Every structure is written in C-alpha cells, then in structure tokens.
Fold this protein.
Amino acid sequence: MSKLKRLATKEDNIVVIESPITSTELSERKKDYLLLFPSDFAKKYRDLLFQPVKFHFKGQPFLIQFNRCTNLFCKWFGETQKRFEDLKYKPSRYKFVGSAKHNTQAIQCNPDPTGSKLGTTWNCTCVPYSNWSVAEEIARLAALDKVENIEVEYEFHKEDCEVSHLNPFKHSGEFYRRGKSSGNSQKWQCKKCKKITNVMPSRRESTTYHQKRNDILPDLAAQLLNRTPVKRSCEMLGIGSKTYYSKLEWLYRRCLEFLERHEAKAFESINFDKMWVNTDKMIYNLNNVRKRGQGGHRFDDIEEQQFPTHIVVSGDVGSRYIFRSDVAYDWGVRVEDIYNDTILYKDDHLDDFSQKNARLRFSFSPQPPTKNDTESYSEYLNALHEFERRNKYIEGLHVNSTYTTMAHYFHIKLMVNAKEWRFVSDDDSSIITALFRVFAREIKRGDAHHFLSKIDRNKSRKDAYREYVDAREELKSWSGGGSSDEASITKLAIAKLISILRYHEFYETVKKDGSQHRKRAKNPIEHPLPSIDQGKRLVDCTTDLSSYEIEHVANMLVKVNDKATSAFMQQIRRILSILERPLVTARGEGKSYKYANFNPKYAQYALTILRTFYNFCLPYNSWDKVKATPAQRLGIADKQFTMKDIIYFK
C-alpha cells in the first residue's frame, strides 16, 4: 500500500550533481587566489566554459554543455567546442571575446578551418552561461515536482526482549493486533514483551493523519481559487495565518501526489507525433518582507519594497494543457550557503559562467580585497553591506529567468515523449536562447521549429475586437463568400496563407565564400485570423522551413498563437489574489501591491494547485462545441475531476 507522503527537499538528492572541480584544483585555487590578479585568476580557471557537467536524475546520467552557437543558420549551431589538433596552429570552433568589466563577454564563432564548403559561419556571438548553475536549477525544479514516502523507524520491543529483531511487517504471527488509533493507525503488540506500537497508516487508510480542521480543506481550496485574500479566508474559516499556510502546503502536496499518478504516469505511456508548446513569462511583484526582529525604526536601511519576480509558463497550443509554471526564485538557498561556496570555490574572482551560483541574484559573497585585487576596500564594504542586508529579509534569492527557462525546458523535454516539436513564443531573447540550447539537437535534425507571435499589447479590447470582425469579413470577401463556421474560416485562412507564401520569404540568400547561404530575414507576415481579444498579430519563423512545401508551412502558421499561456495567465491574475495585478492607491499616486504574496514559496504552491485544477477540473468550450478539460483534450484523462478528487483521492 502507498505510504503517506512529504515534500521532497534538497537532502533527498533527487538530482545528484557531480562537482566539476577536483580536490587538486581546489587546493590550487586556494593558493592562486592570494597571488594572482582577479582577471588572471578568472582566465586560469576558465575551463568550465566548455566543460560538460554530469548529473544523475531518475536513474539516468545526463551531460549538459549549453555554451554553443545559437544561430540556427551557422554551421556551428548546437556544436560543442572542438580543437582541430591535426591542423596548423590548432584552431578551435569558438573563441572567447569581451571583458567582464564591461559586461561584454561572449562566445564567438571562428571560420571553419577545414575548408569545407558545406555551410558557413557568420561570426556570430552568444552569451555564455554557467553549465554548473543550469544543473543546480534543474535540481531545484526537480525537487518542486517530487514527494517522498515518510519513512519512520519503529521500536516494536522493549530493550530486553528476546525477539527484538522481529517486526510485524514480516513476522505478523509474533504480534497481536490491538485495533486502530483515532488516526486509523494500526496498533501492534509484541507477544513476548507486550510493548504496543502504533504504525503510521497508509494513504488508503487515512487522508487526514496529523491534520486538524481537515473539514475546512474544500472551503479553503475554493476560496484560494476564487480570489479570496488570505486574511479574509482566515476570518471566514476561523483559523490563523499559520494554519492557512500549513493547509496551503498540504493542498500543494496533495496536488503533487495527484499529478504523480495522473500526469507523470500518463505521459510515460503516451507518444506524441507532434507537440506544440507555447511559452511565455509573467512578472508579478513580490512584497519584500523583513525577517522577524529586523523591522522597526532602528532599521532604516531597506531594500526595494517590491521585487519583480518572473514566472515561466508553458502549455500545449491545441489543448491548452499547462505542462509547467515555475517561479524564478530559490527559497531554499541561504546567504550562508553563498558565503560557504565563495570560500570554497573562490567565486568572487571567477567569471559568471564559471560560478556555481551564477543563476542567483547574489552569485558570490564579497570578500576582503587580496594583495593584487583591483577592488578597493570601500567598494568591498559597499558590496558586503548590500549582501548582508539581504539576510535581513525573507529567505531565498531571485534566479535569473534564463536559467529557470533552460531548466523548465529540460524537464518538459524529459516529461513529454514527442517525435517532433513546434514552439511558439513572443520575441523574448531569454526564452529563445534557452530553447535553442536545450533543443539544439532536435532543431539541427529538423525535428523542432520555433515560431514567433508578435502582438501589440497596447491595443484596446475594442480595437482588437474590431480587427477580429473585419479580418473575418475580409477573408470571406477574398474567397467570394461562404460559410462562417470556424472550420471553414480556418480553411480560408490556410488558403490565403498559401497565396501569400508564394511570394513571401522568411529567409534571405547571401553570397559568402563563393557560395549561396541562407540566413533569417526577420520578415514576419500578418496572421489572417486575428484573436478576438488581441487583434492582429505578426507571425514569423526563426528556424529553417525551406525544405517544406508551401501548403505544409501554411498549415503550421495558421496554428501559431499564444492562447495556451494567455488563458492560464489570465486565470492566475483573476483567481489568485496573491498574484493579481496591482491596485491604484487611494491618493492615485502610484500602485499598491497590498495583496501581493511575501514569500515566493507560497506563490509556487498556489500556482501548482491552480495548474492542477485548471488542467483536470476546469472544462472550456472550443470551436468544436465540446466542453472538456485540457487534460481530456490532450488525451491523458478520460473524465473531468473535481477538487475533492484531488484532496481526498486514495
């Protein structure tokens, strides 16, 4: 029988990362740290730029090295660093350019030294990232999805019992059953020493073990999913804020258990021919709250009151099923952890891409200047003051959203079995660079393509609706009339796209090194079917579609939209009070975030609860007039669940 569960922690080692630093190198770093200039120290230990990082996850080994060319039309795209040992001067694929001081460090593609005419390089550059830190972010997101069995060590015998090595699980004949406790846990009594021991119930036996006021859970879930502020919920339920957040964590754990059974197992057994993934980011403001004892008039030195915090969301374009929604904030890391890592690895004298904690807002702890340091003592004190001030606020640190997006895509790639991938996003460079690094192999093989959907977000809803109506009338007029149902309109849109694509090019041909080579022209076209709430939009493709027939390209372009993430983000703002839009202050002087959450951990909890409810419990009508949940439309569920199914499932 299934055991009761708890949330996974770092100590569970869901992802085991092998340190890329040997003990010998650590000793060398300790010596060189005091002797070398910071720039020389960083240069000497720059090997991590192209060194793969190995980790183990779900019993499999993984190697990641994401510092590669991200220009899809360059012959080095997706290729790892290589030194051509058999050629004169031993040239490499990439060279490192720029300086840390001016924040211009980059990887630049070298020309192909072999003289091959197959493809060309474009002298392109890309920003380097820490492979080690990407692995750390992958580990963080893996722990968010996981629950572990509660393991308890029992003492079934008294100290002098002659059968102290026996237990009722394997030797039930040596014990008496003495009924069950009020929590439905089985009582066992040793026949020799007469000691009675309660055993923790299984999940089937009890869903309320160690839970007081379990009766309020359905009401609390309903209020959470209906924009009720925390204080109002506490008043209505007659509980304190501590109880509220403990129940919120309990709901979050139940959702993870539900997803483990109905999402993870379903994706393991289903193979998709094509998977259309729409990714977008949402920014909400975190209320920056001091720790207990750090407030009052004695503490005038404060950080920003609100911190913009990113949420990365990805969903299926067709069914609107949301695969993941991740907050770019690590509430498990402490300032002390950063300090200890800095002392051990000397990160304060390393380039960002060589640091273990490059993903975090504070990637290292400021250290006193060394003899050959270029930092003055006053600069060190200012940096240290800012670093230590952070320790007075809520635990955790913001994560660079590009690192979160790379880890986000890594987990989606691992979760969904798809032969081909189609991605849709806006022109967000952090999303695009993460996609091109994680799915480089699929893109290079032609099994993955990326489309842009560009929308004017300053447009009023009235103007958007007018464009929607006019475009449909224009389509029917262009075709000479016809039916106005959705299927017919879509066919007309495809026909119009085919006529446009006969004279439109997404790419330009450039003569280089005596040959013709393609490169992206950044030449979008207007989608013939505007959205009812967004109006006209431009669509483009960043990958190479030149091998496809025009009809195939038109069929892909007509599917390009961001409705999956837009619909879910609207639910976030409308349903979750802690993540809603800001309110205008009474004086009209600015914006108020009075209902904004103060701990991103609870934002992640609420998002996962909402995502589970949205995917499995919330049906919607589509153009086919069928009312079904996203999970039903995707084919991983055969019925509509309720919140009670999630809370009390056995």
